[in-house]
Amino acid sequence: MKDLPARRLLLVHAHPDDESINNGVTMARYAAEGAHVALVTCTLGEEGEVIPPDLAHLAADREGGLGDHRIGELAAAMRELGVTDHRFLGGPGRFRDSGMMGTEQNHRPGAFWAAGLDEAAGHLVRVIRSLRPQVLITYDPDGGYGHPDHIQAHRVAMRAADLAADPAYGPDAGAPHTVAKIYWNRVPRSVAEEAFARLRRTAPDAFPGIAEIDDVPGVVDDALITAEIDGSAHAGAKTAAMRAHATQIAVDGPFFALSNDLGQPLFTTEYYELARGVPGGDDGSREHDLFAGVPDEDLAPGAQA
Ligand SMILES: [Zn+2]
């Protein structure tokens, strides 16, 4: 057991790689500033497609083994971001990647999508009550783009935040804790449009094709954005972390592609919508610190991990 720093940030993601794509600069920034940054990943991403030909045998429809391989990729990515606390919900392999919506994998035994909400959330309650984070980051109710594991990660995170705060829940699961602020991952539509225009203008042939804006998770009207984290100082760390997920991501300069070979922008400023809690700014402008407005009494060190 060790005492944790005063500021504590928890991220809940579906698969290894989602954290680096969505939150790489945010995680690197807060880790560099000395905050405690903890990542909970809900599955091993066993159903992912594999980009490098020499690793193609790891795919679930071939020899398998991709989940174990991605444990190593995630660990390497976390080293790039300076994040030392990363865990799998219920332990590695407890919940399995559910595949894309509508596939038979959705309902396979152990699939995260098929898991009981309170059973899955119960694992996260213990993490929340132990680390006592002031800020939680996860997806919006659609999981950003409708992947069943992303939708389920959202549901589990929101449910666990409720249960963790409920004094009547789980007397053996630690003292109740209320997360002060919950953010959903977002991308402002104007930023996405501008970045895709730059991709078409400056690197039209970098990838076999170019993705559509709707392929980018979490794109919404700019007015919904409440916080932005400028990561220019940590763009290199984010890029390196994404490269560490080599089975899933091909990076080319300020752009990247997933296994569909469609180029898309690599965002080095990350955006959020405050879904729960009180915004830190008093003038309605965007926050530039996710801990803004958290009361001093909630920023005491002393939680233990
Ligand atoms: Zn994912």
UniProtKB/TrEMBL annotation:
Pfam family, any one: PIG-L
Keyword Acetylation: no
InterPro entries, A to Z: GlcNAc_PI_deacetylase-related, LmbE-like_dom_sf, Mycothiol_biosynthesis_MshB
A GO biological-process term: mycothiol biosynthetic process
Reaction(s) catalysed (UniProt annotation): 1D-myo-inositol 2-acetamido-2-deoxy-alpha-D-glucopyranoside + H2O = 1D-myo-inositol 2-amino-2-deoxy-alpha-D-glucopyranoside + acetate
Record keywords, A-Z: Hydrolase, Metal-binding, Zinc
Binding-site residues for Zn(2+), renumbered to this chain: H15, D18, H150
Family that this chain belongs to: Belongs to the MshB deacetylase family.
Cofactor-binding details, from the entry: Binds 1 zinc ion per subunit.
GO MF entries: N-acetylglucosaminylinositol deacetylase activity; zinc ion binding
Name this protein carries in UniProt: 1D-myo-inositol 2-acetamido-2-deoxy-alpha-D-glucopyranoside deacetylase
Role played: Catalyzes the deacetylation of 1D-myo-inositol 2-acetamido-2-deoxy-alpha-D-glucopyranoside (GlcNAc-Ins) in the mycothiol biosynthesis pathway.
Cofactor(s) recorded in Swiss-Prot or TrEMBL: Zn(2+)
UniProt-annotated stretches for the region Disordered: 278-305
Keyword hit for Cytoplasm: no
EC number: 3.5.1.103
